[in-house]
Each structure stands twice: as C-alpha cells, then as structure tokens.
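Try this one yourself first.
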C-alpha cells in the first residue's frame, strides 16, 4: 500500500513511523520547511520525503493520504486528493486502526488540554497502562508503533475530526462550543459545531459520550442527531440525577450506579471553568471504575497546564499571568472572569473571525488598560476604543511587556490572554507564552 503523509511535524513524522512499521510504501511531503530533528528521524527510518513543495504526481498516486491537522482543509492539494477518491485521514484515524486500546477522546473549544491532562493524571495515578497523545505530547501514531498501552487519552481538534471515517473512542467528551476557527468552516458556527460532534458519530451503545448540558449549541445539535451512544451530561447550573453537576460548594457525580462527591475548595484547579473540566474528568474516571479516593487524590494533586492561566512571577507587587493558549474569545472570557485584581490585558495576533462582544462587559469591568500585540491590531483597537482610554499598539513581546510594566501598579495583574492565533509573530502559542515568560523574568533582574 502506498501511504503519503502531508506535513512533517510531530503528527506527520509519527504517522510515517507507524506506516513504515506496518510495511507500507511511505512518502512524506511538507509545503514548508521540516525541522532538523524530524528530518533526521525520517532519514533514520528510511522514509522518502520532500519539503518546500507538494509533488502532485506522487501524492495523487497514493492509496491512503494522512493529513496533519495544520494543513487547511481548503488547501488545493486536499481538494485534489478528495476529487481523486483517495482515502484521506487524520493521524488519529490512521493510528486508531492499529490498536485495540480503549480510547478516551476529548474535544471542545476550550479546556481540551487541561481536561485531557487531568484525565491522563487520574488514570496514571490509579495505575492504568495509559498513553497521552493527539494534540498534546508525543504523536499517537508513534506511540501505537512503539508502545503497548491499554488506554490512550487523546486531545482531539475539529481539524483532526474532519478527517475521520471509523474513529470510535470508548469515551468521548465534548466540553463546550464557542465561535472558533470559523474561517475554516465558512464562518458558519453550526458547521464548526457539527465538526466537533463527529467525535461521537461512530460510537454505539457500548460507548459513552460526555457533554455539557449548559452549552446551547451542544443542546441544539444533540436534538438534530440520532446518536446511538450512551449520553452522560454535566452541568454547572442544574442538579442532575444522572451525570454530574456542581453547587456553590461541591461537585457531584452519579453514573452507572456509582457516586462521587468532593468539595470545590479541595480542587487544585481554580476558576469556574475548571470546575466544569473537573466534572467532566470525574465522570470519565467513574466510567472507568476508578475509586473515589483515587479520583479525589488526583483532583487535589493535578498541576495546571503550561500556558493556561499560568502564574509566571510577581514583580514589584504585580502578578504576571501567561494564558497564551487562549486563542479564541471564549477562552479569554474565562481568563478575565477569574481575574480578581485590576488587569492590564495583552491581546492580539492572527484573527480567526473574532467577535469581541462576548467579552466587552468583562473588559469594561476588569481591565484598566489594553496592550495590543500583533502585526495588525486595528480591529481590536476599533472595537474597544470607546470602552478604554488606554489602548497601546505593539508588535513585539519586548515592547508589550515593557509597556505593561510601566502601566502596572502594586496589586495589579498583567494578563497575556490573546484571543487570537499566534502565527503572525510567533511559531505557536508555546513560543508566544515562552517569550512572554522570558520578558517578565527580565523585569526581576
């Protein structure tokens, strides 16, 4: 079988590793530049590859094309592959066909990484033989090739779900929906939501689908779809006889005749949105028959994910918080909602069709100054100029942090929560967050 892999990053190289192990004829093509470490891996594997171009003749002769999630679904080469009737899959689809492990798959607009990491922590702490992958950590395909895990906990994006055919998790989670990546879904919120719901389309009565009962779009889509899966809701606002819910002081889980409760003050994660994430993770734990004591201990000991409301330092009485992973408006909503001190807010980057109306009242209430960071900040400036007198336009992290440090007074918080993708000035949200932390630490010296 001829397998062609599009994209030479972690996902693509992992897929090449698995394809080679299965004895397929493998070719990898990347329109950009492949990093040296990945090139060396491909050479060691004996995989033929190209960079800086897509040779259509070779790609369109494939029996199976594996597409990395970073390649837009509207790319010309993707259209031609589909037009030829060649099977097109994501790495998670490809890898799932070569493992019998039970998969817990998590998607949603916000909280995916935190909840995926939390569920992995719960399973790992209870002694499960479990791998972590998808949009986080080591390639799922590479782990399937090299390891023999009984379980995988996978963070899954809508871009990965766009390219599935048979992917069927044992437990799927859809945490929430908000208007994200609409530029890839014809600026149609429902089209994007349906892409997320593909996580459950192949599930049956042997499987579980955990969903957010408070999420309006999720409820709307659920009414339209005829799902065969066991549906398990969670809610922050409604007491549920089956599923999980929270009061002001406690979380409660009731599933499959199993019960669990815990005081919210005992959770290691702070913020209302993280109570919801903890509810979803606790349901998954109980569905996998993990003891209450083990779940409680894991929820108390879990450490927050890097670049997600991460405390960087306190300098001259000012807190600096790195929320670089907030690449959409809804994620920043949660960040601003959890701010207790007057906040200087760093925002901006590659706009994905953002509507800032959702956070306008929070900005009026919580934010004392806005520092824009991006190649083109005009949309943000125009939106907030009537709400805030102090708006600054910057195009480097050094300048942004310097202005924040000049504006900030003792007791203030400087929050990097950009609402936008990072690819105008940075190599990813990690690069953006790391540069923020580096500039903040310079203030201490």
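Now uncover the answer:
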């Amino acid at each position: 079988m001829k397998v062609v892999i599009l994209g030479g990053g972690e996902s693509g190289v992992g897929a090449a590793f698995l394809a080679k192990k299965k004895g397929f004829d493998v070719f990898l093509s990347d329109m950009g530049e492949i990093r040296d470490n990945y090139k060396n891996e491909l050479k060691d594997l004996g995989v033929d590859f190209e960079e800086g171009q897509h040779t259509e003749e070779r790609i369109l002769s494939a029996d199976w094309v594996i597409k990395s999630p970073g390649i837009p679904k509207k790319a010309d080469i993707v259209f031609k592959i589909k037009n030829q009737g060649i099977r097109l899959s994501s790495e998670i689809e490809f890898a799932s066909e070569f493992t019998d492990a039970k998969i817990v798959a998590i998607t949603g607009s916000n909280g995916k990484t935190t909840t995926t990491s939390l569920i992995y922590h719960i399973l790992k702490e209870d002694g499960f033989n479990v791998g972590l992958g998808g949009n986080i950590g080591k390639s799922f395909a590479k782990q399937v090739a090299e390891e023999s895990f009984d379980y995988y906990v996978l963070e899954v994006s809508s871009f990965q779900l766009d390219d599935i055919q048979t992917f069927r998790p044992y437990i799927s989670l859809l945490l929430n929906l908000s208007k994200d990546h609409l530029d890839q879904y014809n600026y149609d919120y429902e089209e994007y939501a349906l892409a997320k719901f593909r996580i459950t389309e192949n599930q049956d009565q042997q499987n579980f689908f955990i969903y957010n009962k408070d999420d309006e779009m999720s409820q709307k889509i659920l009414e339209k779809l005829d799902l065969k899966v066991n549906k398990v809701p969670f809610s922050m606002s409604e007491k549920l006889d089956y599923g999980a819910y929270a009061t002001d002081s406690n979380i409660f889980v009731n599933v499959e005749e199993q019960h669990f409760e815990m005081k919210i003050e005992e959770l290691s994660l702070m913020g209302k949105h993280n109570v919801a994430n903890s509810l979803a993770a606790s349901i998954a734990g109980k569905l996998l028959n993990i003891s209450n004591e083990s779940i409680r201990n894991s929820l108390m000991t879990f450490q927050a994910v890097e670049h997600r409301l991460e405390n960087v330092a306190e300098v001259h009485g000012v807190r600096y918080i790195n929320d670089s992973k907030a690449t959409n408006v809804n994620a920043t909503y949660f960040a601003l909602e959890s701010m207790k001190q007057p906040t200087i807010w760093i925002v901006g980057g590659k706009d994905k069709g953002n509507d800032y109306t959702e956070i306008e009242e929070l900005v009026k209430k919580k934010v004392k100054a806005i520092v824009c960071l991006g190649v083109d900040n005009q949309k943000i400036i125009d939106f907030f100029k009537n709400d805030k007198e102090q708006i600054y336009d910057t195009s480097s992290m050094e300048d942004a942090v310097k202005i924040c440090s000049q504006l900030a007074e003792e007791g203030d918080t400087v929050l990097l929560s950009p609402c936008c993708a990072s690819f105008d000035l940075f190599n990813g949200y990690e690069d953006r967050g790391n540069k923020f932390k580096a500039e903040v630490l310079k203030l201490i010296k």
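Discussion: The first strand starts at residue 2 and ends at 6. The mean pLDDT is 94.
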